[in-house]
Design brief:
Blueprint lengths: L6 E5 L3 H12 L4 E5 L2 H9 L5 E5 L7 H8 L7 E7 L3 H10 L3 E5 L3 H62 L3 H8 L12 H19 L1
Parallel strand pairs: 1-2, 1-3, 3-4, 4-5
Helix pairs in contact: 3-4, 5-6
Length: about 210
């Protein structure tokens, strides 16, 4: 796990809960940062201080759900585990819908917290890896598409140059080249000056062939 993955932001308005969680997490090797309200937590996340968050559900001012809503689409960049009392089960489910990875209930024990933390972090790391793989594949597709477009344009440019050469030779009535020119479709017997004109001529030829086939 990276050093960034060893940092956890604990957000709770109760100092005693923050202290308990901090001692508990530090005992298993995590670096713990704390915040006593949602606004302070959002500020610390904006500084990139942590990607893993233990977030209290009920806090004065900005609640845990309010904080999730503030994060919006950026929530996918974080592994957020909600901390709620047993009576907050529906709120915990709402938090999952907003993008939280999991929730733990108060009062909690160390074993339950650590197990849920590990599972959530594993799920988060897998999600990040899949996203990076998708972005890499997408970048490769764009790169290959651009390369194919360049090759196609070069091919068309080459055909335009060849066509214009044949056209000039035909205009000079050079027999051998006139024979070559005669094998071209009538759509390409006019002088063509750029790629777009040549492409349109080719499309007309293809459309005519399709009409004859039908």
């Amino acid at each position: 796990m990276t050093s960034e993955g060893r940092k956890i932001l604990v957000v709770d308005d109760e100092e005693s809960i923050r202290d308990i969680l901090q001692r508990m997490l530090e005992s298993i090797g995590y670096e713990v940062i704390t915040a006593n309200n949602g606004r302070d937590a959002l500020y610390k996340l904006s500084l990139g201080e942590a990607r893993i968050v233990l977030l209290d559900m009920k806090m004065p001012g900005m609640t845990g759900l309010d904080m999730l809503k503030k994060l919006g689409n950026d929530i996918s960049n974080y592994c957020i585990i909600m901390v709620s009392v047993i009576t907050d089960m529906q709120t915990a489910l709402d938090a999952l819908k907003l993008g939280a990875m999991d929730y733990i209930t108060k009062p909690f024990n160390q074993d339950d917290l650590i197990e849920k933390l590990y599972i959530a972090i594993e799920k988060y790391n897998r999600m990040i890896s899949e996203r990076k793989l998708y972005e890499q594949i997408q970048a490769n597709v764009i790169k290959q598409t651009d390369l194919m477009r360049e090759q196609f344009n070069e091919l068309i440019s080459s055909q335009v140059r060849e066509h214009n050469l044949i056209y000039r030779l035909s205009a000079r009535q050079i027999p051998i080249h006139k024979d070559i020119f005669g094998r071209h479709s009538e759509e390409t017997e006019e002088n063509i000056t750029d790629i777009d004109e040549f492409r349109e001529a080719v499309f007309r030829v293809l459309r005519k062939k399709e009409e004859h086939a039908n």
